[in-house]
Amino acid sequence: MDASKGRSRSSHGLSRRAFIQGVIAAGAAVSSVNYLFRGNALGQGAGRGVAERLLTLTVNGQQRRVDVLDQETLLMTLRYKLGLTGTKIGCDRGECGNCTVLIDDVPVYACSTLTRIVHDAPITTIEGLAAPGGRLHPVQQAFVEELGPQCGFCTPGQIISAVGLLKVNRKPTRAEIAEALAGNVCRCGAYDHYLNAVQRATELI
Ligand code: FES
Ligand code: FES
Hints:
- By secondary structure, this protein is mainly alpha-helical.
- The protein has helices spanning 3-37, 50-53, 74-81, 138-145, 155-168, 174-180, 191-204, and strands at 54-59, 62-67, 100-103, 106-109, 123-124.
- It has a single domain, classed as Ubiquitin-like (UB roll) (Roll), CATH 3.10.20.
- The structure holds FE2/S2 (inorganic) cluster (FES) (2 copies).
């Protein structure tokens, strides 16, 4: 593959992500309020003082102090309290994998995880994978080079699942990759691209 094309796709992908993140963040405050308080304005924990609800989370290597309701999912905390909108909401019911993050290096669905239960474990989102200087994680780079995404909505979850796999199995077979990504649904059907990308990532790590 032509290296200059790879760089151009990479930078294009990053600026596109930044654009999407900005657009989504602009509407996040309204939708988070709707979600958190829909039909349960005085849900468990809502009546307690803010000081009692404060938790310190370790997200992408940083300590983040955040006010968390007892029934609040990690997905809501990440997106609407911490602004980490790279973690996507698909089904919001544990079926699509769009919300996958790493907790203690294990892929989990953030929509099905209560923040209070995992608050003392390290959490990694898609925003935490690139190196501080912006160099993409090898899995991200491989996804770019294999043109993995189509619409890209499922891509953060697919990448996080792949990173989780490669932490415990550096040379997975294609069947093992498919099994690891089985919990990540792609409405565009880009599965072969994703499998190719993870195989390519094993050569970059
Ligand atoms: S949004 Fe979490 S599994 Fe679909
Ligand atoms: S690339 Fe569109 S949903 Fe997967």
